[in-house]
């Protein structure tokens, strides 16, 4: 189904006229011809050609919003990879790994930002850092943020600092500082290179950066490694819980690395309408349902027949 949809979309993007030409070229295929084709089970719900293709545009959901997830009904896990849901009029699938990664990431971020998973590690051997003048100025400008994350630095020669700084600007000299402590995030120590990268980011964002890039990478990787993988079997209850938690994330439609967690597949209402139309057309010409699936009423005679045939 997915490939049908993507094929359809790409075809429409490439050449909108092709759609019409195709429609015309299948005009000898009157609905009656189509009924013969319907005998082939593989063609059921094929929206890339045939009858359902005519309704192709309306079958593909345009968007899926966060609101859709709120009243989502969770179906059984598919292929140990996906969790299908019906959300409003849309059938969508959730990537179980991407969804769990998103849930874990937001939980990890919250723990770091609240300070719960953030600590200081004092270095056994203090570390000398040579900064260009620009780096030294950034270190002073954003001193609070840097200290707050856990990089504790000492400037050299406190007494003649201002004199030296002026001199250094003139000479464009490099400055030396001493790194005394580094941040420890979930027990992982960051280092001087991570500090320089954070300084660069602060400079690029005028100080509005909320999290050092090294911390973002650490959390992304931790969320990914801890998340449910493809191939993991999930009970229906686990699927429901996963969808429930996904609803409460702030960026529920993307994983830690920006890939989608949820893909809308088909607009069920439009599909039902098309199938009903197809059924109505079929009724006049044949007793068989177009899909070969017919709901029979409870029937005593049939039960007797079945019992008899089982006996013989
Ligand atoms: Zn991942």
UniProtKB/TrEMBL annotation:
<dbReference type="InterPro" id="IPR037198">
    <property type="entry name" value="MutL_C_sf"/>
</dbReference>
<dbReference type="Pfam" id="PF08676">
    <property type="entry name" value="MutL_C"/>
</dbReference>
<protein>
    <submittedName>
        <fullName>DNA mismatch repair protein, variant 4</fullName>
    </submittedName>
</protein>
<dbReference type="GO" id="GO:0006298">
    <property type="term" value="P:mismatch repair"/>
</dbReference>
<dbReference type="GO" id="GO:0016887">
    <property type="term" value="F:ATP hydrolysis activity"/>
</dbReference>
<dbReference type="InterPro" id="IPR014790">
    <property type="entry name" value="MutL_C"/>
</dbReference>
<dbReference type="GO" id="GO:0032300">
    <property type="term" value="C:mismatch repair complex"/>
</dbReference>
<dbReference type="GO" id="GO:0140664">
    <property type="term" value="F:ATP-dependent DNA damage sensor activity"/>
</dbReference>
<dbReference type="InterPro" id="IPR042121">
    <property type="entry name" value="MutL_C_regsub"/>
</dbReference>
<feature type="domain" description="MutL C-terminal dimerisation">
    <location>
        <begin position="74"/>
        <end position="234"/>
    </location>
</feature>
<dbReference type="GO" id="GO:0005524">
    <property type="term" value="F:ATP binding"/>
</dbReference>
<dbReference type="InterPro" id="IPR042120">
    <property type="entry name" value="MutL_C_dimsub"/>
</dbReference>
<dbReference type="InterPro" id="IPR038973">
    <property type="entry name" value="MutL/Mlh/Pms-like"/>
</dbReference>
